[in-house]
Fold:
Amino acid sequence: MTIAEGASGENGLNVSASRHLAQFDVYYYAYGFDTGLEEVYYWYPAEDVIVTDIAATYPLSSLREAVLHAQRGGKVLLDLRGTT
Structure:
């Protein structure tokens, strides 16, 4: 019997003893941006992503200060839109 026929196991899935779920508890991070013509997204498994805190955000016009800050330690983010 299939799920469409009305039989379902735990979690609402029809899984017999001889079958195993693949990627049941897999988490992903997405990186996306808008090119102006389309939206582009890249998906990465959580175990491949290193998450760190950002110490400061700088506009591109403050590139020198951003580099000096990064050299002292800490992650910095450049805002290419210049709206910070």
Notes: The radius of gyration is 22 Å. The longest helix spans residues 63-72. The first strand starts at residue 28 and ends at 34.
